[in-house]
């Protein structure tokens, strides 16, 4: 390893004995600072990580500042329409180059000593430049790899990482059926929210695709919505999926390989989803299986290591930034089909605000639950977290739904209460932690 | 101080007191049936969103039913984030009447909320924009916009934190 960090063999952290009905994870994976540092090196700085959606850097000069692990980087739209991504630090003395998280600048001038760079990263100005200075020596440092899939932009600090398409693998059809929802593409709606969770980043990954908690943690949400509907007023928000939350519908989960995971649940009232207005067009343009998956199944997709894409009554990009072993910053955006009606857009946003925010009526409860999980994990006396539900009744490879949509999961479960998808998450986590590259 | 200034100030004080003392039903009664309750999200470091219908808000409730949802949730004792309930102290100041020429009164105020809960003590600030209307001789809140100055949010945010 570079940087003098010794990679510890962490095989003992994952007790993977599926044949014996056992899958357990040592809770110190959430709490050990040495493991966290190894995650930054071996996962966040070696794999592909999600950076932004291309609509967030639509025009020449648009930039978007984010992090790869804890390293600041920014994506910058070039004059020729391509994207580049740079380490967000001046070549001189490391000051952050972008004044805002998101903005537009055709050149960037460091606000510390005034060094200036073109959009391409080329150093074009050094204040009081000394004779014989080779400016090219000070061009901004581009990250090793940058690629995008259907508008979702990913980067890697690892020059040897495989192709993005291979990395995304079985998640691609899941992204396709989000991207296919508008002929004009998707856009991130103005406004966003960032919240800090006092818990390990992996607990947020788990929570995003944990179907099992829904009927306990979100029971109060379902009751609140039922109460609202019983009064005959939706305050402009049509029915939400009370059935899905109460656990009365068909559900499932997938280990999608490479650490990626997903869950789905049937919509009881698909006609209240904002995408319903596009039904006719979708049916004309797309294969029936895709239309069925788009209209009739709510879906949470986790792309290892830092992205959740939710397509439920509302639609969300959830970006996770690991800060320390006991802290993760999460930023959420509403992503929506360009050109949808104002009614659909407003409905999508109201559902988002109802459920997804730390000021909303469901995500707030998720955060409280996972912060408690983190705190409980400090009890080293009780070592293991159990992930054995559904261990003796999953399908290896694709079930019927996967075959219909055309993806090849490592394992399929026919109930989102099952925890088999987390086996894939932790097997791949262990593989990367022990030095295998994606 | 004018009678109107006193009346407006007392209403705004009353709202904060009812929240801190968890008198939820009395709190809701301060709002008109059609009251809008709006907490915009930050579009960037310097500006909040401006169009609550078509942009993302932290909270946007288009009538009093939305506030009733929140009270139902708190009183259910089934919300993970609301059990145990955080303790709060609102300190309201800078109450100014901006416009009283029409049927409704526009007023602004500042509020600092000290919260104590699982994360320890947190102190956060908001700018309030009120629209007030007289209903049966009593002043009521017909619109409240809360510009919550914090951006990276620590812990859950519910109506009593704002």
Q: Which helices and strands, and how do they pair?
A:
The complex is a heterodimer of chains A (438) and B (162).
Chain A lengths: L13 E4 L4 E5 L1 H4 L1 H12 L4 E5 L8 E7 L2 E7 L5 E5 L14 E3 L2 E3 L6 E3 L4 E3 L19 E5 L2 E5 L7 H5 L3 H8 L6 E3 L4 E5 L3 H8 L5 H4 L1 H12 L11 H5 L4 E7 L2 E7 L12 H7 L2 H9 E7 L3 E5 L3 E10 L2 E11 L4 H14 L7 H15 L6 E3 L8 E2 L3 H6 L5 E3 L6 H14 L5
Antiparallel strand pairs in A: 1-2, 2-21, 3-12, 4-5, 4-7, 5-6, 8-9, 9-10, 11-12, 13-20, 14-20, 15-16, 15-23, 16-17, 17-18, 18-19, 19-20, 22-23
Chain B lengths: L2 H18 L3 H6 L1 E10 L16 E5 L2 H13 L10 E13 L4 E14 L2 E16 L2 E11 L3 E3 L8
Parallel strand pairs in B: 1-6
Antiparallel strand pairs in B: 1-2, 3-4, 4-5, 5-6
Task: Kindly describe this structure.
The complex is a heterodimer of chains A (438) and B (162). In chain A, the strands form five sheets. In chain A, strands 13, 14, 15, 16, 17, 18, 19, 20, 22 and 23 form a ten-stranded antiparallel β-sheet that branches. Chain A has a four-stranded antiparallel β-sheet with strand order 6-5-4-7, with no helix packed on it. Chain A has a three-stranded antiparallel β-sheet with strand order 1-2-21. In chain A, 28% of the residues lie in helices and 27% in strands. Chain A is of the alpha+beta class and 438 residues long. Chain A has helices at 28-31, 33-44, 164-168, 172-179, 201-208, 214-217, 219-230, 242-246, 279-285, 288-296, 342-355, 363-377, 400-405, 420-433; strands spanning 14-17, 22-26, 49-53, 62-68, 71-77, 83-87, 102-104, 107-109, 116-118, 123-125, 145-149, 152-156, 186-188, 193-197, 251-257, 260-266, 297-303, 307-311, 315-324, 327-337, 384-386, 395-396, 411-413. Chain A is globular, with a radius of gyration of 22 Å. Chain A has two domains: 49-156, 3-layer Sandwich (Rieske Iron-sulfur Protein); 169-433, Alpha-Beta Complex (Naphthalene 1,2-dioxygenase Alpha Subunit, Chain A, domain 1). In chain A, strand 4 and strand 5 (71-77) form a beta hairpin. Chain A has 14 helices and 23 strands. Chain B has 162 residues and is of the alpha+beta class. Chain B has one domain: Nuclear Transport Factor 2, Chain: A (Roll). Chain B contains three helices and seven strands; from the N terminus they run H-H-E-E-H-E-E-E-E-E. A six-stranded mixed β-sheet of chain B has the order 2-1-6-5-4-3. In chain B, strand 3 (87-99) and strand 4 (104-117) form a beta hairpin. The longest helix of chain B has 18 residues, at 3-20. Chain B starts with a helix and ends in an 8-residue tail after the last strand. The mean pLDDT of chain B is 96. Chain A binds chain B through residues 100-103, 189-196, 198, 217, 219-221, 223-224, 227-228, 231, 233, 235-236, 329, 333-334, 342, 345-346, 349-350, 352-353, 357-361, 364-369, 371-372, and chain B through 39-45, 48-49, 53-63, 65-66, 68-70, 72-73, 76, 78-81, 118-119, 151-158.
């Amino acid at each position: 390893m570079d940087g003098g960090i010794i990679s510890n063999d962490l095989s003992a952290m994952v007790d993977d004995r599926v044949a014996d009905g056992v899958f357990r994870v040592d809770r110190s994976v959430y709490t050990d600072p040495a493991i966290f540092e190894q995650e930054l090196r071996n996962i966040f700085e070696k794999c592909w990580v999600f950076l932004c959606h291309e609509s967030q850097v639509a025009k020449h000069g648009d930039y978007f500042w984010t992090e790869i692990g804890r390293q600041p980087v920014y994506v910058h739209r070039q004059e020729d329409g391509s994207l580049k991504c740079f380490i967000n630090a001046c070549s001189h003395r490391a000051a952050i180059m972008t004044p805002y998280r998101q903005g537009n600048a055709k050149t960037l001038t460091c606000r510390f000593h005034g060094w200036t760079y073109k959009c391409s990263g080329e150093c074009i100005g050094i204040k009081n430049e000394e004779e014989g200075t080779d400016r090219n020596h000070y061009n901004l440092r581009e990250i090793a790899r940058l690629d995008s899939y259907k508008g979702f932009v990913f980067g890697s600090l690892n020059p040897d990482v495989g192709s993005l398409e291979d990395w995304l693998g079985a998640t691609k059809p899941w992204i396709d059926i989000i991207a296919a929802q508008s002929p004009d593409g998707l856009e991130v709606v103005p406004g966003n929210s960032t919240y800090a969770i006092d818990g390990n980043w992996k607990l947020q990954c788990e929570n995003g695709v944990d179907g099992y908690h829904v009927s306990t943690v979100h029971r109060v949400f379902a009751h609140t919505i039922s109460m609202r509907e019983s009064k005959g007023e939706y305050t402009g928000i049509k029915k939400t999926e009370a059935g899905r939350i109460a656990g009365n519908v068909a559900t499932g989960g997938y280990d999608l390989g490479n650490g990626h995971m997903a869950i789905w649940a049937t919509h009881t009232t698909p006609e209240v989803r904002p995408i319903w207005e596009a039904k006719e067009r979708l049916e004309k343009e797309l294969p029936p299986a895709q239309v069925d998956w788009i209209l009739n199944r709510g879906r949470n997709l986790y792309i290892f290591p830092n992205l959740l894409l939710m397509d439920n009554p509302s639609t969300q990009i959830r970006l996770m930034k690991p800060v320390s072993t006991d802290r993760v910053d999460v930023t959420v955006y509403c992503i929506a089909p360009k050109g949808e009606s104002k009614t659909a857009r407003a409905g999508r946003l109201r559902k988002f605000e109802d459920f997804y925010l730390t000021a909303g009526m469901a995500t707030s409860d998720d955060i409280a639950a996972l912060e408690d999980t983190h705190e409980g994990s400090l009890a080293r006396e009780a070592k293991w977290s159990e992930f054995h539900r559904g261990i003796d009744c999953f399908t290896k490879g694709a079930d019927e739904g996967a075959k219909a949509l055309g993806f090849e999961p490592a394992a399929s479960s026919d109930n989102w209460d099952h925890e088999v998808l987390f086996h894939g998450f932790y097997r791949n986590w262990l593989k990367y932690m022990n030095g295998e590259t994606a | 101080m004018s009678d109107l200034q006193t009346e407006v100030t007392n209403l705004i004080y009353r709202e904060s007191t009812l929240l801190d003392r968890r008198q939820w039903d009395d709190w809701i009664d301060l709002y008109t049936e059609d009251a809008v309750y709006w907490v915009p999200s930050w579009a960037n470091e310097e500006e909040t969103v401006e169009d609550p219908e078509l942009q993302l808000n932290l909270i946007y409730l288009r009538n009093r039913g939305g506030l009733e949802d929140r009270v139902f949730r708190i009183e259910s004792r089934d919300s993970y984030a609301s059990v145990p309930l955080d303790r709060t102290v609102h300190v309201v100041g800078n109450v100014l009447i901006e416009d009283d020429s029409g049927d409704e009164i526009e007023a602004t105020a500042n509020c600092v909320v000290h919260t104590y809960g699982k994360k320890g003590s947190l102190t956060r600030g908001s700018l309030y924009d009120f629209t007030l209307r007289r209903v049966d001789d009593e002043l009521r809140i017909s619109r409240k916009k809360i510009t919550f100055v914090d951006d990276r949010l620590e812990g859950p945010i519910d109506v009593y934190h704002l």
